[in-house]
Amino acid sequence: xKKPCILILISLFISVHVSALTLEPIKYGDFSQWVTRDITExxxxxxxQKTVYAIxxxxxxxxxxxxxxxxxxxxxxxxxxxxxSGVVKTSNTVSPFNRNGxxxxxxxxxxxxxxxLGLINMDVMVAGSIYLGRVFEPITSTKSPYSKxxxxxxxxxxxVALVYDFQVDMPESNTRTKSTGFSSKKTLQGRDxxxxxxxxxxxxEDSNGKLYAQRVGTARERYSKSIPWTKGHRLDIHYGDxxxxxxxxxxxxxxxxxxxxxxxxxxxxxxxxxxxxWAPADAVPTHVLMxxxxxxxxxFVGTEGLTLYIDNIAFGF
Length: 317
Hints:
Layout (H helix, E strand, L loop, with lengths): L2 H17 L3 E3 L9 E6 L8 E6 L4 E4 L12 E3 L2 E5 L2 E5 L2 E6 L2 E7 L1 E7 L3 E7 L2 E7 L13 E3 L1 E2 L6 E9 L5 E4 L7 E4 L4 E12 L5 E13 L3 E10 L1 E2 L22 E3 L5 E9 L8 E7 L7 E2 L4 E10 L1
Parallel strand pairs: 2-4, 19-23
Antiparallel strand pairs: 1-26, 2-3, 5-12, 6-7, 8-9, 9-26, 10-11, 12-13, 12-24, 14-24, 15-20, 15-26, 16-17, 16-25, 18-19, 18-24, 19-21, 22-23
């Protein structure tokens, strides 16, 4: 059989495989609506007005106002309004992108520059990320970045996959840059990866307000090279303990210790959610975490210019 015929058959199989699913779109996951925010940075670092975006019903917010998820949107982003020691700074690594007349989300890893009266020049590596949850503004420090964001939303269904359209633009560089702004830049070997993941958890709280979880379902995929625009990509969700499966990678493992994400307990306090084990394969989750990012490493580390585009995110059943 000629190669073009094989490719046609494969593409038809993929289309049938995805179309056989019942899709449940994630609210505002078609990225057709955005909030535009006008934030003015402090005069000491130039006083520029910056445009920052949020995923929610179309709106325009003027002024240095802490953002709270609007219109029932479950989405948060790495775009933040920070006020550290009275100095206002913002970053925008997630934005709407017009692709052939359709709007999708664009996430890019870039270096944010901070110049103080022309005397101090600090660079901070920031990756573009979107996730289900909330960020608590204004950000007041760069320490413990996970403790400023709530990861995950209540969810009790058991989808078989996450389906989405996406594209990856990968720079040729085989290095990453680590730059927190408070120490010199470091060049690390190995290129960063873009990443999409879904984690289903069964959470509970103890009498001291600490949060724990079992991992119910896992779907995690990393992209190490450029990928052209791909429609209806299917990321399968695997239930139960996957550590003995042939597809398992260490970075699919449980999130605890320094890797733990945060959530609010019953008292409204942000605390780590310690994943303490794998749930039975038939368990029902209480929460879902979903993230798409132009980086898969630690905070303030990335490959500058790495870009992930994503659109039409839905759960498949």
